[in-house]
Specification:
two-stranded antiparallel ribbon, mainly alpha, globular
Length: 332
């Protein structure tokens, strides 16, 4: 087996997970404050709150299980288990290992379902757009829980690479492809919408696109590193795997915060131009902005018809162009 020893890999894993969990906790508190205090659609805000709390609770459960395992491996059960800490961590059918695997799979499925729902909502309920991600999430769920069953029934001495095999590879590939696909479709939809109104709408949605791309890049790069380490049969996969848990929660919080704190700047830039904007809400809870055309000067031709007893005289006159005063321009 290439790479670092199993016990050392687990120590590095708990260190990195604790470090990222601190970031996760901080961002979660800020996100909670933003979602509770910022005016928003009630249903959307309730959903975002539920997801934020669920992701944080699962990340917390995962790190608690890891701390219990490290205490058992290096302190409580060190001398009673054959092989010491390496023997303890090498037992893939350990109930605590099964529990943390279930937590990881559930966390991943929530994250994948969320990005699929975002894709569906941004495309205004176009079901064809989410055929692949919905199928991928369903297959990912079946694969993930089958892996858990495999680990439960693993023969003594089996490694994670033997017990999981190609199923774990398939799980990593499915979840990574789902996130790349959905993020690409969301960014494409926002970009095309922004470009189509660029001629009369002076704001830009580039900050929103950057927030999505950066967050997706963080998660996808972590999954890619995990996949490479697993395919190399390296114990280095354990530190990467344990960091995925807080990263999922971090990515969710970053998207909420970047868009929330960036929206005021976007709206401020809109205020410098003579356009009207009317807020509307999609059927799926996403608030959108529908811009109207700027007010412009127009020319009016008026025809007057005068009837008399003898003759009908038609007079026409044309008003000159008048510029509408700037003070009469309104903004919503």
């Amino acid at each position: 087996m290439a790479g670092i020893a199993l016990d050392k890999a687990e120590i590095i894993a708990i260190f990195l997970e604790a470090l990222l969990y601190g970031i996760c906790l901080t961002l979660f508190c800020i996100t909670l404050w933003v979602l509770v205090n910022k005016p928003a659609e009630t249903k959307t805000r309730s959903l975002m709150l539920a997801i934020a709390i669920s992701l944080f609770v699962l990340a917390t459960a995962h790190i608690v299980l890891d701390f219990i395992r490290i205490l058992e491996a290096f302190i409580f059960l060190r001398d009673s288990i054959r092989g010491g800490p390496i023997g303890y961590y090498g037992n893939v059918s350990n109930p605590l290992h099964i529990a943390k695997t279930l937590v990881y799979i559930t966390q991943t499925l929530i994250g994948d379902s969320l990005v699929t729902w975002r894709c569906y909502a941004v495309h205004w309920g176009n079901k064809y757009v989410i055929i692949y991600p919905v199928t991928s999430v369903a297959v990912c769920a079946a694969t993930g829980y089958f892996i858990t069953w495999n680990l439960t029934n693993a023969t003594p001495g089996s490694t994670i690479f033997q017990a999981g095999g190609a199923w774990i590879t398939a799980f990593f590939v499915l979840t990574m492809s789902t996130n790349v696909y959905c993020t690409s479709m969301i960014v494409y939809r926002i970009w095309t919408s922004n470009r189509s109104v660029a001629s009369y709408h002076q704001s830009t949605l580039i900050p929103v696109i950057l927030a999505l791309v950066e967050s997706a890049g963080l998660y996808s790069s972590t999954l890619l590193a995990l996949l490479i380490a697993y395919l190399a049969n390296s114990n280095g996969q354990y530190p990467v795997l344990d960091t995925v848990m807080p990263v999922i929660s971090i990515v969710f919080s970053l998207i909420i915060l970047q868009i929330s704190f960036g929206s005021s700047g976007i709206k401020g830039s809109i205020g410098n131009y003579s356009t009207r904007e009317h807020a509307s809400t999609s059927p799926h809870g996403f608030s959108t902005t529908v811009p109207s055309y700027p007010l412009q000067a127009i020319s009016v031709e008026i025809s007057r018809v005068t009837d008399s007893d003898d003759t009908n005289v038609q007079k026409s006159s044309k008003d000159q162009k008048n510029s509408m005063p700037e003070q009469m321009w309104e903004q919503a």
